[in-house]
Amino acid sequence: MTTPTVDVHAHLLVPEVEAAVADHPGLAAARALDARRNGPAALAVSGPMVRERLPRLTDVAVRLAAMDAQGVDVQLVSPSPSHYHYWADEATAEKVYRLAGEATAAHCAQAPDRLHGLGLVPLQHPEQAVPALEHALELGLSGVEISSHAPGRELSDPAYEPLWTRAEETGAILFLHPFGCTLDERLDQWYLSNTVGQPTENAVALSHLIFSGVLDRHPGLKLIAAHGGGYLPTHIGRSDHAWSARSDASAGCAHLPSSYLRRLYFDSLVHDPAVLRELIRAAGADRVLLGSDFPFDMGTDDPVGALRAARLSDSDFHAVRGGNATTLLRKD
């Protein structure tokens, strides 16, 4: 296998970010909301899980050893979504994205042939989005990570047009990774906040980008959706039907919603080989990238094995394993 195996969904914890927000009065309210959304049982499990994985989230040598064990040559490393802090005021938000970007760049610089990085964008302050993207690119990062929405704003909000424009111009990667779910306490048992909430948030966010015409206006965006894009790719037929049957559904975008799946990228982390095959059918083998959610428990410790389980053709297997990501990460 001459093409490297590339995992586009791997995370980093940045203690400097958490130290910067520790004394902010908005943090307590944000944590209380997170606790209500997840429920006490989930929090009791998540805390020890993260602590046990802390070396893999912070130590480059430990990360590389784990990658070797998985057969992964290259990771695209993004800050943990817990670092978004979309509750923060403008000054705090700028501090967060600068610290996150600088720490990620320093982490990746310890193994530049194996680690690429992403910064953060404070979506709650759209006027900071382009400066945050520029800061990430100046640090040598490949782009930025964003959530599915910010308080009071969906990704279809016109205020984000400058971000999409600049990302398209620069060829920056946008990694769409939700954090939290607005269904709130309805999902506060059995870890539904993640198992149902994350795929829901992905589907809603991608639908906003499609139906609002963002992808018509910016066809060159390099946007990777985590978790295989959630529920949308396997249920896109309902969106197509609405677009064909209703004038309100077709008012914002020029083509069938399913056609836009081939303008997006998706990671392979769907936990079901049949779903992965359907994702590849819907989006195209050239639009799916290996993803593990390293090193969290809702990821996979064997991303290549999970890919093999889908029993793809050799060409599709190697495209998803690393060929597509290698092309996407290549700097012209």
From TrEMBL:
Alphabetical list of InterPro entries matching this protein: ACMSD, Amidohydro-rel, Metal_Hydrolase
Pfam families in alphabetical order: Amidohydro_2
Stored SUPFAM superfamilies: Metallo-dependent hydrolases
Occurrences of domain Amidohydrolase-related (ranges): 6-330
UniProt entry keywords in alphabetical sequence: Lyase
Protein name (database record): Amidohydrolase
Species this chain originates from: Streptomyces cylindrosporus
